[in-house]
From TrEMBL:
The family this protein is said to belong to: Belongs to the tRNA pseudouridine synthase TruA family.
Organism: Paenibacillus mucilaginosus 3016
UniProt name for this protein: tRNA pseudouridine synthase A
GO biological process: tRNA pseudouridine synthesis
Catalytic activity: uridine(38/39/40) in tRNA = pseudouridine(38/39/40) in tRNA
Biological function: Formation of pseudouridine at positions 38, 39 and 40 in the anticodon stem and loop of transfer RNAs.
């Protein structure tokens, strides 16, 4: 039995999340169907983590157990020929039997994109949340600093979170801004958050609260005060799903990229 790991990118717009759900179209369903066509095997693949409906991925990682003898350098082409155009497998390798896409992951990075300014970019509208008003980027950057470290993130997760512990570690959190598009009179702001794990809606609630900081409705210090309160009602709204992307997953003891 071989253990094959793959990196997958997908536009999550048309899917009800990554994980299989009864009578709903998901990314996992499409991948497993492609594997069935290729190998004749009904596999249950493992992913580095779920993404919700409408959320995208640049570097999702999956692994599967297979008896197929397809050469590793043929997996990507073979999978992509049987997948819809909004899902692409772009890296594959044979990994040790103990590799598990979720349990072996050491840290993950998510990116949330906000287009700030007068007009949205029609070509990126499925991947950017459009905020027509001004946002104070420096205050948002200062607010993010309060999240770095090990904390209880109860305030920044959905009340439907199933995890027993809400303690997570954020290793890095920062904002990058692209130059202003003079024609659209707007620019893209990318919020990156890297941690050892994330709770249900955690990044989207952080972003929704940060936008209130950027709008001047809250101070940058409020991000830390909300964190300490351990109360979801103290935080801001959950940002829209389409601006969120699973950016990268890191493995092994040094948390290198897979």
């Amino acid at each position: 039995m071989r253990n094959i790991a793959m990196k997958v990118s997908y536009d999550g717009t048309a899917y009800h999340g990554f994980q299989t759900q009864p009578e709903l179209v998901t990314v996992q369903d499409e991948l497993e169907q492609a594997i069935l066509f290729l190998t004749g095997e009904k596999v249950k693949l493992t992913s580095s983590g779920r993404t919700d409906a409408g959320v995208h991925a640049k570097g999702q990682v999956i692994n599967l157990q297979t008896e197929a003898r397809i050469p590793v350098d043929r997996w990507c082409h073979a999978m992509n020929s049987r997948l819809p155009d909004d899902i692409v497998v772009w890296h594959a390798e044979e990994v040790p039997a103990e590799f598990h896409a979720r349990r072996s992951a050491k840290r993950k990075t998510y990116r949330y994109t906000i287009r700030c300014g007068r007009f949205m970019d029609p070509f990126k509208r499925r991947f950017e949340f459009h905020h027509p008003g001004k946002l104070d980027v420096e205050s948002m950057r200062m607010g993010l600093l309060h999240l770095i470290g090990e904390h209880d993130f109860t305030s920044y997760c959905s009340t439907r979170t199933a995890s027993v512990s809400h303690v997570r570690t954020i290793y890095d959190a920062y904002i990058e801004c692209e130059p202003v598009d003079q024609e659209l009179q707007s620019y893209a702001m990318h919020i990156f958050v890297t941690g050892n794990g994330f709770l249900y809606n955690m990044v989207r609630i952080i972003v929704g609260t940060l936008m209130e900081v950027g709008e001047g409705k809250r101070s940058s210090n409020a991000i830390g005060e909300i964190l300490a309160a351990r109360n979801r009602s103290k935080a801001g709204p959950t940002a829209m799903a389409h601006g969120l992307m699973l950016w990268e997953v890191f493995y092994d003891k040094e948390a290198k990229k897979y």
